[in-house]
Amino acid sequence: MAEGDVLLSKDPESAETWTAEDPTVQDLEQLLSTGPYSCNRTDEVWPNLFLGDLVTAHNRFGLWKMGITHVLNAAHGTMFCQGGQDFYGTTIDYYGVPAYDLPDFDISQYFFSAAEFINKALNTPGAKILVHCAVGISRSASLVLAYLMIKHHFPLVKAIKAVKEHRWISPNRGFLKQLQNLDIQLRQTREC
């Protein structure tokens, strides 16, 4: 196995590999399917960056206890995620992304603005951010992956592995394709 390759199996004798630069959607889905399938309502997946669900997001007292100062809602305006700046008041900075968890929804249009919001929050002394959607595994996870790719220059596979160390995630197939395109775009930009 070459440096930069990723194992798709725990058994090195039978493991398939692919280079970190060219995984297929099926490869990514296989990587995502490894490890435990459970997660908490909210998990810290990067220092001071929490990935969670709408139950956590709708509990203002719980957010206060966690020290959350910023909320990125990846399901803004959908039936179950009605949060907004009015809901949180002046104690929490809010950013809403009106994404639907559908493979044909273009979540990529929010990759850079969401990454900028997360980055600004994490560069604020003492700040903590919750990124959430309904369940905290697809829309919000896709935006966290994009953040790691854009602001920390992680290839997509490395970003997935970093988040999966702390939380089970499962971006839908369409979002994975959009993250693949982002990966290619960022790689080409860095090579110039």
TrEMBL record:
Keyword entries, A-Z: Cytoplasm, Hydrolase, Protein phosphatase
Region ranges (Disordered): 1-20
GO cellular component, one term: cytoplasm
Molecular function terms, GO-annotated: MAP kinase phosphatase activity; protein serine/threonine phosphatase activity; protein tyrosine phosphatase activity; protein tyrosine/serine/threonine phosphatase activity
Record localization: Cytoplasm
InterPro entries for the chain: Atypical_DUSP_subfamA (IPR020405), Dual-sp_phosphatase_cat-dom (IPR000340), Prot-tyrosine_phosphatase-like (IPR029021), Tyr_Pase_AS (IPR016130), Tyr_Pase_dom (IPR000387), TYR_PHOSPHATASE_DUAL_dom (IPR020422)
Active site residues of this protein: C133
Catalytic activity: O-phospho-L-threonyl-[protein] + H2O = L-threonyl-[protein] + phosphate; O-phospho-L-seryl-[protein] + H2O = L-seryl-[protein] + phosphate; O-phospho-L-tyrosyl-[protein] + H2O = L-tyrosyl-[protein] + phosphate
The keyword Hydrolase is assigned to this record: yes
Tyrosine-protein phosphatase domain residues: 40-188
Coiled coil: none
Enzyme class: hydrolase
Ranges where the Tyrosine specific protein phosphatases domain occurs: 109-167
Tree of life domain: Eukaryota
Enzyme Commission number: 3.1.3.16, 3.1.3.48
Keyword hit for Hydrolase: yes
PANTHER family: AGAP008228-PA, DUAL SPECIFICITY PROTEIN PHOSPHATASE
Function: Dual specificity phosphatase able to dephosphorylate phosphotyrosine, phosphoserine and phosphothreonine residues, with a preference for phosphotyrosine as a substrate.
Protein name: Dual specificity protein phosphatase
Organism field: Pelodiscus sinensis
